[in-house]
Amino acid sequence: MLLGCIGDDFTGSSDLANTLAKQGMRVTQYSGVPDQPADPVIEAGVVALKSRSVPVEQAVAQSLAALDWLRAQGCQQILFKYCSTFDSTPQGNIGPVAMALAEALAARRVVVCPAFPAAGRMVYQGHLFVHDRLLNESGMEHHPLNPMTDADIRRWLSLQTGAPVGHVPFAEMRQGAAAIATALARAEEQGTPLIVVDALSDSDLIEIGTALDGLPLVTGGSGIAMGLPGNFRRRGLLSGQGSAWQGHAGRCVVLSGSCSAATRGQIARHLEAGLPAREIRAEEAVAGRIDPAEIAAWSMAQEKRPLVFSSAAPDEVRRAQQAHGRERVAAAIEALFAAIAKALVAAGAGRLVVAGGETSGAVVEGLGLSALDIGPEIAPGAPALRAALPQGGHIALALKSGNFGGPDFFAEASAILRGV
Ligand SMILES: Nc1ncnc2c1ncn2[C@@H]1O[C@H](COP(=O)(O)OP(=O)(O)OP(=O)(O)O)[C@@H](O)[C@H]1O
Ligand SMILES: O=C(O)[C@@H](O)C(=O)CO
After folding, report:
1. What is this protein's function (predicted)?
2. 62 in contact with ligand 2, CB cutoff 6 A
């Protein structure tokens, strides 16, 4: 394994794996820290954690455990992947995890770059934009777990680490890889290991990636990975075989626990098309009134692609959270989706499209999938995936971040998972 990656959530890890696979690396995504060695043909391994919103100490401990495993696989470079909207609080977890990894790797020149231009996320003069809005005016200021109230990534990181943060501004970054490398070296001399680098386009990210050749630690959104495979390729280290992914013809079911605007638009499109759907209400899930086996049997009996969803509007989510507690509602719905996925697979489903990072993590854990092969891209940030089932056989999956995908994502995913 050449490049070892640590993702702080499940769908974000697929997003990164997708970028690396598109650049020609042979990639596998692991569910948590594996307990056995990686297949030696794998060139980039992504350890998907659920460390984005857990207490800081747990995020640091999980990330260091992932680092140990990746180093044992011989990785030459480590990439810490977080959200392109920099999801974190003034306490953490991005800064403390980056610092802990930097210390473990003796890395003193560590880029911080959440840019993902294909999804409208750009870093300019140290500030993060979502399309034409500053992060703190993009809707992210209302995020239920980590409201992003400051778009200045340097200031936010300083709060998390208690230390000054370096910066490579736009004008210097645009001079290309050599100028970026010089600016990073200067920041290191000034004693600021974390260095925010501006990036507005994919070509900026390629230049930045080129400048990161040989550095032990890189951090960012999936965009920061765009230029890294080229460094390994130039050194003749890539096999050029790419992905070994295959489609799956079995029944396709869509599961959504995501309440994001993009997912709700995709659900609206499914309903408008008159396709079968079952809505799960938070109250029913909390009261344990839903039988996963019955939902699975209903899904398998539909002639067209069925959807099972709990994707309420913000007001309804708030009401359910006030009545039952945020953690309790989330845990009940996630456990239910994990049980439905298990029942579906037992009933012979071959393709699952899952919307929502937490929901995807619950489904993958519920199915006991340990490693996922990365296939073709369905939408920016969302690849097709394939995994061996612990009971034998395989399943094809799409795991979609809440904010990703166009209105027809479910139909597009279903077709690509079948391999057509
Ligand atoms: N009706 C509801 N009321 C309260 N919570 C809900 C409801 N429906 C779903 N949830 C919970 O909301 C959370 C949605 O998180 P999830 O990460 O799956 O989606 P997302 O936030 O849209 O995606 P991402 O994290 O990829 O951006 C889950 O924990 C889910 O169980
Ligand atoms: O970076 C992103 O936006 C995604 O990969 C993600 O992490 C969303 O949860």
Report:
1. Catalyzes the ATP-dependent phosphorylation of 3-oxo-tetronate to 3-oxo-tetronate 4-phosphate.
2. no
For residue 203, give its domain range.
Answer: 3-234
Asked whether residue 412 is domain-assigned, the answer is yes
* pLDDT of residue 320 exceeding 80: yes
Q: Is 381 in the pocket of ligand 2 (CB under 6 A)?
A: yes
30 close to 39: Cβ distance less than 8 angstroms: no
Tens digits of per-residue pLDDT, 394-411? 999 999 998 899 999 999
- Residue 420 banded pLDDT, cuts 50, 70, 90: low
Dihedral sign computed on CA atoms, order 103, 193, 99, 216: negative
The number of domains in the chain is: 2
**Residue 208: closest CA among 187, 189, 232, 225:** 225
What type of residue sits at position 419?
G
pLDDT single digits (tens) 360-392: 999 999 999 999 999 999 999 999 999 999 999
ipTM score: 0.96
Query: What span, in angstroms and rounded, lies between the C-alpha atoms of 5 and 171?
Result: 29
Query: Whose alpha carbon is nearest atom 2 of ligand 1?
Result: 317
Tell me if the bond preceding 93 is cis, omega within 30° of 0.
yes
DSSP state string for 323-339: HH-HHHHHHHHHHHHHH
Helix (H, G, I), strand (E, B) or coil at 53: coil
CA–CA distance, 328 with 246 (Å, rounded to integer):
38
Whether the CB of 11 sits within 6 Å of ligand 2: yes
Same domain, 192 and 264: no
Round to whole Å and give the CA distance between 308 and 253.
8
State yes or no: pLDDT of 140 exceeds 90: no
- Domain check: are 209 and 72 in the same one? yes
Residues 168 and 221 grouped into a single domain:
yes
Q: What is the mean pLDDT of residues 225-247?
A: 89
Say whether pLDDT at 310 is over 70.
yes
With a 6 A CB cut-off, is 63 part of the ligand 1 pocket?
no
pLDDT at position 149, please?
93
β-pair partners for 256: 309, 355
> What ligand has the least distance to the C-alpha of 382?
2
